[in-house]
Amino acid sequence: MYMISNPLPEACPHLYDNFLRAMPLVIPGDVRTGAPSRPKVFVNCAMTADGKIALPDGTRLTISSEEDFGRVHRLRNSCDAILVGINTILKDDPSLLVKARFVNDPRRPLRVVLDSKGRIPASATVLDTRAHTLIAVAKGSEGKALQKAKGRPNVHVRAFGKGRVDLRQLMKALATMGVRSVLVEGGGETIWSFLGAGLVDEMTIFVGNMVVGGRGPTPASGDGARRPKDAIPLELVSVQRMPGGVLLRYRPAQKK
Ligand SMILES: NC(=O)c1ccc[n+]([C@@H]2O[C@H](COP(=O)([O-])OP(=O)(O)OC[C@H]3O[C@@H](n4cnc5c(N)ncnc54)[C@H](OP(=O)(O)O)[C@@H]3O)[C@@H](O)[C@H]2O)c1
Question: Is 131 a member of any domain?
Fold first, then answer.
């Protein structure tokens, strides 16, 4: 048996990244098989110094530096699935792929979209053939989403809960499919839901050296906390200065 000491995150961030990836996460699951009940969930996003993740009208804004993009693509490559909310698809039309210019041997993690009503456009880049994509809908919207998936064997549609995608059901299903890690990339409504459901294991926020002002989207929006005691406490694990900004790494902390 080997003891691995926790490397100091500030002193050696790359070593710390590897340590976190290798560290088995104990999530209560099936006591007979030892299978985890859900994948490990990482949240990552980039915000401006005034706490915005896009322009005031929600238009995509490049906040990360080239070095931070490299980190994000290595993080994507280390995860089994990459997840976003439908508004991010509608606003940014991301590919959710691992770019070869940042990673030597890119993998193709499963792309997952939270889309309760099946609003995803058939033209969405995330539905292209370059990786598998799961459109997670709410009950009753399967048909609408299946129309967009027609003729695309790499696109899968499945319902999780009524009204809105039930994240716990989705995470359980992903674990059953063998997905051990999910990278949640936004937007704010999605990140808030994961935090609120207690489903986040680690959160990294790149704070870019810029200000955009306005009332644009933030890293965590949705309904937000109603009472001060509903705020979600975090533990700051590391602060890393990077070209173009600073990287903050958090873990959820116990409520006092
Ligand atoms: N800077 C960054 O790192 C970054 C990263 C990603 C996105 N963004 C920005 O974020 C903005 C979009 O963020 P957003 O907060 O408006 O939307 P979002 O999180 O991308 O999508 C939210 C939508 O997802 C659907 N959804 C289904 N189930 C859900 C659940 N359980 N919890 C939460 N959402 C669920 C809901 O629509 P339905 O009810 O119709 O299903 C909801 O309105 C864009 O401006 C984009 O540019 C920035």
Answer: yes
**Ligand 1 pocket member 171 (CB < 6 A):** no
- Which residue minimizes the CA distance to atom 14 of ligand 1? 187
pTM: 0.90
Q: How far apart are CA 21 and CA 15, in angstroms?
A: 10
CATH code for position 183: 3.40.430.10
Instruction: State which of 62, 90, 157, 189 you would mutate to test the pocket of ligand 1, scoring each by most atoms of that ligand within 8 A of its C-beta.
Output: 189
The answer to whether 92 and 62 are in contact (CB under 8 A) is: no
pLDDT tens for each residue of 39-49 = 999 999 999 99
Structure confidence by residue, pLDDT tens digits, 66-100: 999 999 999 999 999 999 999 999 999 999 999 99
